[in-house]
Amino acid sequence: MGDIAVEGMRIALPSAAENYDSIFDGTGYLVTPGLIDFHLHLFDGGTDIGLPGDICLFPNGVTSAVDAGSAGCSNYPVFSRDVIGRSRLTIRAFANICPAGMATSAYHETLHRKYINKERLRELFERYQGELLGLKIRFTKELVGDDGKDTLEAAIGMAEDLGCPLVVHTTNMPLKADEILPMLRPGDVYCHVFQGRGNTIIDEHGEVDQAVFCARERGILFDAASGRNHFSHKVAQTAISSGFFPDIISTDMTAGTAYQYPVYSLSHMLSRHWNMGMPLMEVIRAATSVPAKVMGMDGCRGSLTPGMAADLAVFQTVHKKIKFYDFQNEVLEGDKMLIPQMTIKDGNIVFRQADFLDEVRSF
């Protein structure tokens, strides 16, 4: 790729006639669209697990993010006002089916039908149209028991009524992948795709279940959303070695894993997938253009095309020994990683390493 220019808040074609304020020599660096973390928890101050987005994301090349069900219909207005409204990040969200969302870690959210308020959800989606992307359900034995099919069907029905996608948390799910996937609709998101608890995407023969490939052909999206408890190196390596890559790579980061074991950052999670055999450009797409399209922003973000919003990230590709850990503390030893050098959000530098300096500066 050649030179990239930023003029105002947009990416532009470089012009010899322009007197640019700063010129950076990007030789040997990887320049990407600003990263998009499609699954994490940003309700800082409103939930036990919420993290401060601008502080945790800009230093890692992330310029846009999606909150994955931290808030429900009872507290989403506060989340929108106090988090989205005050952040320099571009933030979208999925609303939790539970009215209280994921307010506390002391106990799980309830999915009992008598507490689900369809009308309030409908009002929420009308009020926050363009900001709310869809619904989120944690389909796990801890919440729905050993069956839960009726609960999932009800969630899909609500999403259908609202005309929106559904994100399904699948760690320790009560049904098999080949039972859940046919229920999902094009555009729905099967998250924690490489989780290793209970039923996984690996069949009894030790291979990726054919239902997974069929679902992808129908338009179901698969998100890594690794988190602390949702990533198995064994499951991921089986899938990646067979050519099955996640559509989206996100962190499921919380206050307890931001800059901390085993997640650290989105750039760290991208490095893990790169070390597992995904081509680097596929890794980058899974955190830029693909989630941008799902968010309805592919016309303005997720690309370095002139005219797009000037969200950019600069990385150094470093070859060094590094260890990655999964939910069982199993180690993957890698030899390369992406180190963030600079982040630009809407044309403004919001982070850069102390030694990544301007080559020329005009006054």
Automatic annotation (TrEMBL):
<dbReference type="GO" id="GO:0019213">
    <property type="term" value="F:deacetylase activity"/>
</dbReference>
<feature type="domain" description="Amidohydrolase-related">
    <location>
        <begin position="238"/>
        <end position="350"/>
    </location>
</feature>
<dbReference type="InterPro" id="IPR020043">
    <property type="entry name" value="Deacetylase_Atu3266-like"/>
</dbReference>
<dbReference type="GO" id="GO:0016810">
    <property type="term" value="F:hydrolase activity, acting on carbon-nitrogen (but not peptide) bonds"/>
</dbReference>
<dbReference type="InterPro" id="IPR006680">
    <property type="entry name" value="Amidohydro-rel"/>
</dbReference>
<dbReference type="InterPro" id="IPR011059">
    <property type="entry name" value="Metal-dep_hydrolase_composite"/>
</dbReference>
<protein>
    <submittedName>
        <fullName>Amidohydrolase family protein</fullName>
    </submittedName>
</protein>
<dbReference type="Pfam" id="PF01979">
    <property type="entry name" value="Amidohydro_1"/>
</dbReference>
<dbReference type="InterPro" id="IPR032466">
    <property type="entry name" value="Metal_Hydrolase"/>
</dbReference>
